[in-house]
Amino acid sequence: MPIADKLVLQRHRHLKWRAFDRLELGLMILCGILCFGFSMSVTADIVTRTIGHPWLWLQEFTSALFIYAIFIGAAAATRRNDHLYLTAISESMHGTPRLIVELLTRLVVLGVAFGLIWFGYVNYLRGFGSFRLPSGLPIAYLYIIIPLSGILIALFTVEQIVNGLVNGFDHPEPPAEDDHAIPQIRVSEPGV
User: Fold this and answer.
1) What is the rounded distance in angstroms from the CA atom of residue 42 to the CA atom of residue 62?
2) HSE (CB half, 13 Å, CA atoms) of 104?
3) Residue 143 near residue 124, CB atoms below 8 Å
4) Is-contact 123 146, C-beta < 8 A?
């Protein structure tokens, strides 16, 4: 099984367009790289401080990786129905009540996405007046990910709303395939 098949969730397939699978894959890979970089950066920061020769730029680098990982992860999780979404309530319902709860939940998420886009963009523009130390870069480079994440969250939420209205939200999930399952051997009784 290729890595792409493992990173792109097949759960809730009826709510997804295949055209966005590559985007989900890219977001998942980017999240992994950012989390790995964050871990290595924190480790290097601790080591350099412990030996008495701190690299001051590491804290700035670490915070940037952390912020980007959070907002890119939120977008990826929205596509995967793993975040910003209450499944326990809606999955216990069927028919019209489920449709209403699913739509209301996603409309709230869409409102949050628009808030991220608007206020993130405002903060991005204001970020050109403040600078990070020791690099002297405008703080706007940290804020740019907020409206971009909002755009992705809105895109994935609209995808789910459209597909939910067309295909229905209430689809039973196929049983999970267990790659490590022990095959069952049937032994027939003599004379049968």
Assistant:
1) 7
2) 10
3) yes
4) yes
Q: What tens digit of pLDDT does each residue of 64-85 get?
A: 999 999 999 999 999 988 764 5
Q: Alpha-carbon distance 183 to 136, whole Å?
A: 61
* Residues 6 or more apart in contact with residue 129 via CB below 8 angstroms: 138
Does residue 183 sit in helix, strand or coil?
coil
Q: How far apart, in Å, are the Cα atoms of 167 and each of 12, 15, 120, 163, 173?
A: 11, 8, 33, 6, 14
**Average pLDDT of the segment spanning 81-95:** 69
CA distances from 71 to 87, 89, 178, 182, 192 (A): 21, 25, 31, 40, 62
Tell me the whole-structure pTM to 2 decimals.
0.82
Percent helix / strand / coil, the chain, rounded to 5? 70, 0, 30
Query: Which residue in 68, 161, 145, 73 sits closest to 111, CA to CA?
Result: 161
